[in-house]
Amino acid sequence: MEKEEIHLKDWPRILVGEVPGIFYVEILIRVAAVYLILVVSMRLMGRRMASQLSRNEMAALISLAAAIGVPILDPNRGIIPAVIIALVVILVQQLISYWAAKNERFEGISQDIVSTMVENSVLQLDNMKNARLTRELLFAQLRSSGLTHLGSVKRLYLEANGAFTLIPHPKTQPGLSILPEWDTEFVAQQHQVPGMLVCHHCGNLQAKTANDKAGKTCSNCGKQKWVPAIQ
What we know:
With 231 residues, the chain is α+β, with helices and mostly antiparallel strands.
């Protein structure tokens, strides 16, 4: 279409387009066919396509959407190419899943591995750095589970699909508060444990001694900022 043919008052073109009216009947057939292709493709790729997706499954789904969406609106494109693309995507996804089940190393390369973000109420900073996960985002995840300090966490795993798995501590111990520091009213309601300090950076728990006034270094992360432990 030439730019001279574009007018803002050309409502028939804006609303209906320049295709014949019979094409809208054809769209019904195309949408039904594309819908069937998507449902069958996702069924063949397994039940995980209906749950939280891994990066490979997300790439497969986006590839299907990009390839299959075009024939719905373009009368010059047939449905057969979309079927071929869907078959290729299914085949590649099935091969990746097969080799991932056979080879643990390949599984880690293609789908990532599980990482421990919190271990025995202490942040695993190296793992968080590798996962590009900040303290604020991790604390937000824990708060969404109803927790207020790290002492309630035995393990927090970041699964390969990006989901978090929380294992509560069977016996809550003193830990680092995960409440926002600006929420001073709520922070003030937390019970501090006398004689116990936690590293402000990682949550490492230490008994308070006279040397703390000189700026004791955390044995876990090397920082020197300590705050009262919360029970």
